[in-house]
Prior knowledge:
By secondary structure, the chain is mainly α. Among the domains are: 35-142, Serine Threonine Protein Phosphatase 5, Tetratricopeptide repeat, CATH 1.25.40; 216-326, no CATH class. The protein has helices spanning 2-46, 50-63, 69-81, 89-108, 113-125, 129-142, 147-159, 163-176, 181-193, 197-213, 218-242, 250-270, 276-291, 296-330. Helix 2 (50-63) packs antiparallel against helix 3, helix 6 (129-142) runs antiparallel to helix 7 (147-159) and helix 8 (163-176) packs antiparallel against helix 9 (181-193). It is elongated and about 85 Å long. It starts with a helix and ends with a helix.
Amino acid sequence: MKKLWSGLLIMFLTTLIITSFTACDKLKISNLKANKHFKTGNRYYGEEKFKKAITEYEAALQLNPNLKAAFYYIGSSCIMVYRPGDDSEKNMEYGRKATDYLQKALELNPENKDIVQALGDINDKMRNFDLAEKYYLQVQKFTPDDPVSYYNLAGFYNNNGKYDKAIEMYEKRIALNPSDPEGYLYLAGFFQDKRKWDDAIRNHELRITKISESDLDEKEKSILLADAYYRLGVVCWNKSYQTPPDVMGSVERIQVVDKGFENLRKSTELSPNFPDPWAYMGLLYKQKVVAEPLNQAKYDKEYTVMINKFQELRKRKLASEQFMKDLTKDK
């Protein structure tokens, strides 16, 4: 009887061991296949073939549900396929899949900034303003001292017509480091796009002050100042050109134009081979004609001088760039 029970026990254990090994082998094979699909998905992702990447990543997840990285990559691929403004069912499905997979990825890795950023991006594209704002603000908490997070939020608010909040983000960026000229440049650009010329001028002037006060070496400082004076001169031209005569009188227009000339000339002094300031000085003479039409003949001659100088410097610049390209080819 003991021999019978011993025999049965041995048979049971043998069957159990064989079954266990078979299950382990299947698991190993399944994981290997999953990894292969995942690598193929990565290749398609790198080649920007996102629909094919989605298929491969989903196959990888089906074979190995513990492949956590796949959730993020499927979500990211769906974002790339999704087309804002296309309300077709197929396109909306990509949006839903992106959200679902990214939320699952976030559950598995709640401290991953890239996942939160991606959730902000897809909700922004799908016009879910409140959710997009929520995720973008979370991203900022990960890197509160990173200027890029403020620029991203400012751009988001600007694109959604929340201009006061956009300005707030630009100003918070400046507050991170008030001596950094870059913050004033971005805020000036925002005001210029909104045709708030005086605010743009003020921030360009602040940028010039910060560059002048910086401890940069003189060569780098000269390059930045040449750019800053040029940008300020361009805004002055824009203010005059975009403002009709019934809104801006001749005296004010001449003041704006002269301010533009002053800054563009400073730019040419610091960077004599920079062609663009000469073009805008020519355009400023056209604005002088608007203010003083009786002097048109005089200003037209000055316009021609400026444009000829611009064309000469531009031709020289293009020739220099071509020479450097040819030199690189020879190497």
